[in-house]
Amino acid sequence: MRTSIATVCLSGSLTEKLTAASRAGFDGVEIFENDLLASPLTPEEIRTRCADLGLSIDLYQPMRDTEAVPADEFARNLRRARNKFELMRRLGADTVLVCSSVSPLALDDDDLAAEQLSRLADLAQEFGIRVAYEALAWGRHISTYDHAWHVVESAGHPALGTCLDSFHILSRGSNPKGIEDIPGEKIFFLQLADAPLLAMDVLQWSRHYRCFPGQGGFDIAGLLRHVLRTGYEGPLSLEVFNDVFRQAEAAPTAVDAHRSLLVLQEAAGVTQLPPPDVPSGIAFAELATPDAQPVTQVLGALGFTRTARHRSKPVDLWQQGEARILINTGTAARRESTALAAIGLESPHPSAAARRAEALLAHVLPRRRTPEDVPLDAVAAPDGTELFFCSTDRPELPDWQTDFTPIEEHRAADTAAASTGLTTVIGRIDHLALTQLWHHFDEAILFHSSVLGLRPQESVDVADPYGLLRSRAVSTADGAVRIVLTVGATPTERDAPAQHIALGTDDVVAGARCFRAAGGHLLKIPTNYYDDLAARFDLTDDELATYQELGILYDRDAGGVFRHCYTRTVGRVFFELLQRDAGYQGYGAQNAPVRLAAQHMA
In a 10 Å sphere around its CB, with 0-12 CB exposed, 13-18 middle and 19+ buried, how is residue 92 labelled? Predict the structure, then answer.
């Protein structure tokens, strides 16, 4: 289906918004009146600019407080409308949005509303314009889509139809099935927006918290199916009022917006995309660093050994069990401090994963490699993290490990560990925590769920000593891949919370003791935490003493027990050592405020 976006969704000047919409792949735009009024371009120049960019102008909006008003007020409204219609003719727009009135002058009289809208449509028809009448969820007398349709149907004018807006319909709890009673040719326009499910004034909810389909809690796909059953043939258009989107850079926001419509059409059965190739595990995590020594000291204390080196790049492979961490000191990947730069996702069909990512507008990364290197497809996540689709130890597919040459110190380290009694306790990467900039959070959730096929979990707010963090995990159904996405209390990357790699073990106490015995430093947790822990859970004195000694945090729910501790931060990365019962699906969010406070004091 054709796709469109309202200019109010994006930041910047009108020219910047149009350029971003075009480059993201939209077919058309809704021009918001404020954007036109603030533009130095004439309507004719805007029309030409849109044509040059391959964009149609699908809607001009809004006209407010027009219908069901006293005669003298309606006469003024018609004069105002004539001016707008003349401007629209110059602009090349053929549909105008008229919102149901919120004016205190409006009368509760459907017959009067229908009569005046019919007269407005008469005037619009002279200019070759159609009137799309929309029920605002907070309209004074008309606030539901079925009521708006009743008025339109009563008017019986060929140039008057209805505009359906998913937010106005679903925020009021209206049943969208009734949409199927409206003839498709009388639905002049469809506007789509999702939103988190909040208990608040609907006007404020609409003006500040709308988001793109798939980023909130509404069933937008279900509503779209009802609309399509009417025979509607117009565009799918986004109208999203969101404080974050209107401050973020327009280009990536427009890409995120268009991706949401692609995913929506797939969910509604309109189009077919390459199916998700859900990852089956984490092959590796890659740290980029200007100085490898601090982080490799931590890895060594955790029991990792340097097992191999890339044959053509300054990248080392450190491994323990199935947990693999790459240390990249190359200039191309180097950052100001140690940071999590890339993730290798174990993909059942790497090429299929790459096809879906590209179909959903993921940024495909060029890769510098020699002819001997394994061809790995990679895309960039919204935060810039590189995601590699790869295969490990599967003979039928190219193995990324063949790019690495084994080194002798691996065998020597194994021998040394055996002689000291230090044994492998880490078996896998349990999860990764990625920090998002404030304007990437919703985009990141949609990206990881739609491109990678991961399931979003409930959003969690976590108290930091200097603000509130928002966190949301995405994972596979079996927990083989878990990624926690967090947005910090501050808007800058420099002040954002550190990233971390969580390492799974079957014995966190033994792992913590081994780490300390090897010279590692665990995060110190305040005594007050353990006093509270004793009150909340029936732990023995010995257990409490051990946990306090090692800085181990504890949580328990109906599914099982979760024990975890943390290393000190190196650059922008720290490590978590954890032991989770199979039934425990969380991440110890109850303990996060204590951990964050301890990190600030460390």
Answer: middle
Confidence of residue 467 (pLDDT cuts 50, 70, 90): confident
Structure confidence by residue, pLDDT tens digits, 171-189: 999 999 999 999 999 999 9
Task: Give residue 410's Cα distance to chain centre.
Answer: 40
* Cα gap 143→253, rounded to integer Å: 30
Q: Which helix (H) or strand (E) element contains residue 187?
A: strand 187-192
pLDDT band, residue 485 (cuts 50/70/90) = very high
Q: Which spans in 129-286 are helix H? A: 145-155, 166-170, 202-209, 220-228, 250-267
Q: Distances from the Cα of 487 to the Cαs of 211, 298, 385, 578, 590, in angstroms? A: 16, 26, 15, 23, 17
CA nearest to 368, candidates 397, 328, 413, 414: 328
Token digits of residue 585: 């699906």
Strand partners, 352: none
Helix (H, G, I), strand (E, B) or coil at 501: strand
pTM value surpassing 0.85: yes
| Tokens encoding 32 | 């918001």
Task: Quote the CA–CA distance of 569 and 575 in Å, as a whole number.
Answer: 8
Whole-Å CA distances, 381 to 456, 462, 470: 16, 24, 18
How many Å from the N-terminal Cα to the C-terminal Cα in the chain?
Answer: 54
Q: Are 241 and 439 in contact (CB under 8 A)?
A: no
Q: In what order do the strands lie in the sheet with 386-390?
A: 363-364, 377-380, 386-390, 339-346, 281-288, 323-328, 315-320, 305-310, 404-406
Dihedral sign, CA of 232, 237, 241, 245?
A: positive
- In this predicted model, what pLDDT tens digit does every residue of 242-296 receive, in sequence order? 988 888 999 999 999 999 999 999 999 999 999 999 999 999 999 999 999 999 9
